[in-house]
Structures are given as C-alpha cells and as structure tokens.
Amino acid sequence: MNFKEYNQQQNWLFPPSIEELIPANHPVRIVNGVIETMDLSSLYEVYYKEGKPAFHPKMMLKIMVYAYMDNIYSSRKIEKAMRENINFMWLSAKQVADHNTIARFRSEKLKEVFKDLFAQVVMLLAQEGLLSLKRVYTDGTKIESVAGRYTFVWGNAIKTRKAKMAEQLEELWNYAQSIADQQDQDPPEPPSFKKISPEKIRQTAEKMSKIIKEKSTDAKRKAKARYIKKNFADHLEKYQQQEEILQNRNSYSKTDPDATFMRMKDDHMQNGQLKPGYNAQISTENQIIVNYTLHQDTNDLHTLKSHLQNHFELYGSLPQELTADAGYGSEENFKLLNEQGIKAYVKYPLFDKEQGTSKKKKTRNKPFDRDCLYYNKEEDYYVCPMGQVMEKSKEITKKTKSGYVQRYSCYTAKNCEGCPLRGVCFKAKGNRSIERNHPLEYYKSKARENLLSATGVLRRKERMADVEAVFAHLKHNRNFKRFSLKGLKKVELEFGLHALAHNLKKMAA
Questions:
Q1: pTM (2 decimals)?
Q2: N or C terminus of the chain with fewer C-beta within 10 Å?
C-alpha cells in the first residue's frame, strides 16, 4: 500500500510558532489589528490598582469579540477554546482565563464602557470609507429572553384582582354595618374603597372581623372575614411591588423582571406565541450596524426618540437621512425628525394600502370614508356626499403612551335626518361626526411626497436589502434567537457584542 509516512513520535527540527500557523487573511487578525489601534483607557479605568494582577483587558476584549465572531457565546466554551483553539491561543498568548473571569469581564467590566468601544470601531469603518454616518436605515426585531416562558405577571390581572379585593371588602363591610345597625346605637362609618392601602385593609379587616365574630351566626361570613384579615394586606403589598416593576408595561417575567412578554414571529406551524423578550432597534448603513438600543416596549412607535438620542451620544451628531417602515409612522416621530432636520423616508400605517402594494387583502376606498370627503382648507369645513357642509364643532386632545398630546378637530353635519344615503354613509344615531388630526395629515402629505420621489423609491428598496438583511444574518446565520443573559443592561451589552462582531466580520469580508 502507498501511504504517506505517519509517525507521532517524530520530533521537529525547527518547531513552528503559532504565528506561522494562522493564515495572513484570517478574521482573527482583523480583530487583533482593530483592537490594537483602539483607545482602551476607559476600559482600564474600571480595574482596581490594588490586589492580584488581572488578565490584561486588551487580551480579554480580543478574546470576547472573536468568540462572538466565531459563534461562541458561553463563558465555559470560551474557556475551552482558549485551551484548545489555536486562534484563541494566539490572541491570548497562551494564557487561559477561567469561565468565571470571562463572565465577570463581560457582565461587569464591559457594561459601562462598551458603547464607547463600539463607537470607536464604527468611526474606524467610516475612516476606511465603508460608511458615512449620514444615511441610516432603522428597524426593530423582538428577541426572546432567557427567562422562563410561563413565569409571567400581567398588569391587567393585577388591576382585576385589586378591584375584586375592593369589591369583597365593601360587600363584607356593608354586611358588618348592617349587623351593627340592628343592635348598636352608633354604627361605624363606612370607609371609601376606591383607593385601598395595606394599612387601610388591616384597620378595616380588624373592625369587620370583630363585629362579625361577635354578632354574626353566618359561618361562611366569619371564614371570609378571617381570610381577608389574614391575607388581603399581604396580597396588596405584593401587587404594589409588582406594579413598581411593571411601571408603564403590561407584563413582565418573574425570572427576568426587565423582560416584557411580546408576540414573536410565527413558528413553522404558524403559531404566534407570547414570550418574554426585548425589542432590539438598530440603524445600519451598507449592512453595518452604526447604532443599537434595547427596549422593553413591544411597539417600535415609541423607540425612535431614545434611539436617535443614543446615536447623538455615540457620535455627537444625528444622521441627515433616516429610512424606516410604517411601524415608526406617527405624528410624534414625524415632528421629531422634522425638528431635528433629518430627511425622513418613513412610511405611515396606510401608505402601502394607498399605493395598492399591501400584502394584506386589498379593499377599495369607500366613497363615504373620511379621507374621501371634500375638505375646504381655507374655511375649515368638510362636505358630505350629499353636499351638506360639516362645520367644525369642537377640538379634543388625546395623549399617547409616551405622553405626547395630539389635537383633533371634530366636524359635524347639521341635518342627516331623512338623508337617502344615511344607511351607507354611517349607522350611528344623530348627525354624522368625523375627527381630523391636521398636524398628522400635514406630516403624512410631506412623507408621501418624500416616499414617492425617485430618491424615496430607491431608499425603500435599499432598506429591505440593508437593515432587514442584518437581522436575517444575526438570527439565522449566527443563530442568535435568544439572549443568554438577564436584565436590560446585560442584554444590551450582549446585543452590542453581536453587533460589534457583525461589523468586524463585514470588515473582514
């Protein structure tokens, strides 16, 4: 048989160095070269001068970034790679950090300084001519938390339980008062149960329990009074603690209180499920992530302001152009972009339907819809299909979840009685009334003009191939579908490591 010589005991005359075994164009050299040029003074400052010498932060950062580039996210697997993988051995100069040290470096040392390091890499890519930071494409996606999927707390359920507690308290108090009325000259005054507190429950339960115990013969009422006295105050304290965690959210996970239950994309069986997760927002240019933020809000609508603020904190300026889908099309966001001087190519919710490009079932605009009625801007009135003038009757204000105040003008017809078109025009009682948000209509007309321009059409096409492709790469190619850390700060850092690894991988490509 003709085989190449194989002898494990053969000695090397000139043993090769690790440097010689790594190809010149390997991505690990990109990581090493980029981090060598970075200013890591902010990272050095989080270390103590006293005590046992720590592993060099530059080495740890190289190891951490390259691990995420190589789809290795577990601290134990990173430790194993430092012992066995020649690329990690070259980066670490054959030093091996245990998994606890790696985990502490990621969650504690990088937590406060990582965004500064991320911005340095993006600025380096800008100097290389790979991006300009003037034009960005923004989108969001929901990523599942590592929290338990069935450990939920719902805000509406807490409100319902508190209302039932108040109802039971009032019912039992009325019963206790009726007993006191029959036998006492001076019955106790009934308390108000609209706002209840643990202290108020304890006082009320003590009085009720005493009256019912002494003067009632109803065993069920006595048992209920004992239960209320023993449990209601503690239950209310628990609900108040849960409401403090919820703040403005409607849900959270018991095993990761920062995670909000969100409806994720349908699985292969077309089952949309509510899972604990975070709303990740990114801005990209040439498929490079230039800005990222993590949010607890399930809707993209209220994330744009803080997302742009983070962009300004990173680079000291805002982008000149921003392109986004209809999830960001609100009066508040249009006004924000206009005030900041950002050219917006942002859809509003019904834009695709107006253009006939919506994926949903097409529906024809009804001639009696508000948007199809004639509006006289100079004299501020509508005209119904029968030619009747609908004059402005009042103005109302509505406040959004973020606290933004919207103003609506109401227009009412004078006489719809006996109108032959009433059955198809509207079905409510009285005369027809419509609402119109004039500032929003103005911003929608400007957005429509921008979106339908030659540049707007191009930007809409580029958005799908730019920012959406990045999410596809992170989720499917890199299998990043679930966080491995808990807490908003930690998952933001974890997502940042994925973003930095993605950018360096694009640079290497």
A1: 0.87
A2: N
